[in-house]
Amino acid sequence: MKKIKLILLTVLSVACILSGCGNTEEPAEEPGAEETVEKEMVSGIEASLGEEIPEGMERSPLTGEIIQTELSLKRPLAIMLPTDKAAQPQYGIGEAGVLYECMEEGDMSRQMAIIEGWHDIEVLGNVRSCRDYYVYWALEWDPILVHFGGPYYLAEVTNRADVYNITGCAVNSTSAAPGCNGFYRTTDKVVPHNAYISAENLIEQCEELGYSLTHDYNNFRANHFLYATEKANTLTDAEGSFDAKEISLEKAFPYTKSSLSYDEESGLYKKELYGEPQCDGTTGQQLAFKNIVIQFAHYEVRDTKGYLAFRCHDDTQDGYYITNGKAIHMRWGKTSDYSPTKFYNDYLEQIPFNVGRTYIAVVQNDRSVIIDGVEYKSLVK
Q1: Once rounded to an integer, what is the mean pLDDT over residues 294-310?
Q2: In Å, how far from its chain's centre is CA 16?
Q3: Among 26, 143, 169, 365, which residue has the least CB neighbours within 10 Å?
């Protein structure tokens, strides 16, 4: 692998302290009309693909697939879902355009699914608690945040007026539990693995709370990932690429031993937990992704209970981008709450993602991943 060049992404004027970064971006200049904003957003995605979009359709910011304009204007969900063995399977997780997985305390990972087109889903969950660092990643998508409480570290960000918070219980005495009446428990699993919500209940709770179901265009950036064209085979001839058919995260997520295997026929990576296919409980289908991101991140242990803090706003860390059976080393940068995390090759060129679903594993930067039997660590010193 080539020696990495010194990379200077956007320099932050003030150093952020891990996931406590709470400064939002300066408000964008207000456009003359909402329609102008929408056209600007759409043109950014069109430009990255170099393809024309049919009338009444847009590119999904989550997947790059063509969707109806009406859907593109609506807020997605950012919903917290467990990886616990007793909590499987999850219902609705297969609808995620982007799925995050990151470590929590106790060597257990947790997932956050970003779902557009959620408005008719009958069962979502089971829903589990959140951590503050997930919220900073969620804000990139201007979503409705759905979770079931969390540690008191979470209160500061979920109490913010710009966080559209739906939670099954209060975080602490300073917090309310907006939307708690939308959740219900089932008898097929034991507490805490049996809390669910439906799209119908979510919409009802959002209406009662005055939450808009459409995007705030001063915050949302539709041009999130840079997409290759549908016909492109990203990484086929990329300099520095190497084979990546089997992705093991057992050193990153030691309890679940999450892994992904490349399926040549579909061109997708199929996900496993505990050595078994990870499936959506509604469809029975195994989770599958076109793009895989291994995102090393700086972290600290907050207290004796093992609660973690991740630096979400950063421009110093690296990782790997994987698609079509190949991988390349990459760098990433995120400058503010609402700014998208951007992924770059070692020449500071933004990496074009292939159209399709994306799985992002946020990995502690002193841990490693195994790709085709070879252990890979962060190369940042």
Answers
A1: 96
A2: 21
A3: 26
Q: Is the pLDDT of residue 27 over 80?
A: no
pLDDT value at residue 201: 98
Q: How many CB atoms lie within 10 A of CB 220?
A: 21
Query: Of the ranges 39-48, 106-115, 210-219, 356-365, which one carries the lowest mean pLDDT score?
Result: 39-48
**Interatomic CA distance for residues 281 and 272, integer angstroms:** 14
Q: Tell me if domain 18-25+221-377 and domain 72-209 are identical in fold.
A: yes
Q: Burial of 319 by CB count in 10 Å (0-12 exposed, 13-18 middle, 19+ buried)? A: buried
How would DSSP label each residue in 33-100? -HHHHHHHHHHHHHHHHT-PPPTTEEE-TTT--EEEHHHHTB--EEEEEE--GGGPSBBSGGG-SEEE
List the structure tokens of 163: 């966080």
Q: With beta carbons less than 8 A apart as the criterion, state whether 71 and 261 touch.
A: no
H helices present in 162-279, as ranges: 199-209
For the segment 138-183, what is each residue's pLDDT rounded down to a tens digit? Answer: 999 999 999 999 999 999 999 999 999 999 999 988 889 999 999 9
Helical (H) or strand (E) element with 275:
none
Write b or e for each residue in 235-245: b if 16 or more Cβ atoms lie within 10 A of its Cβ, otherwise e: beebeebbebb
| Element housing 248 (H / E) | strand 246-248
- Extents of the domains making up the chain: 18-25+221-377, 72-209
Give tens-digit pLDDT for 255-286: 999 999 999 999 999 999 999 999 999 999 99
Into which CATH architecture does domain 18-25+221-377 fall?
3-Layer(bba) Sandwich (3.50)
Q: In the predicted model, what is the mean pLDDT of residues 45-67?
A: 78
User: The domain 72-209 is classified under which CATH number: 3.60.70.12, 3.50.90.10, 3.20.20.10, 3.40.30.10?
Assistant: 3.50.90.10
φ, ψ of residue 105 in degrees (nearest 5): -70, 155
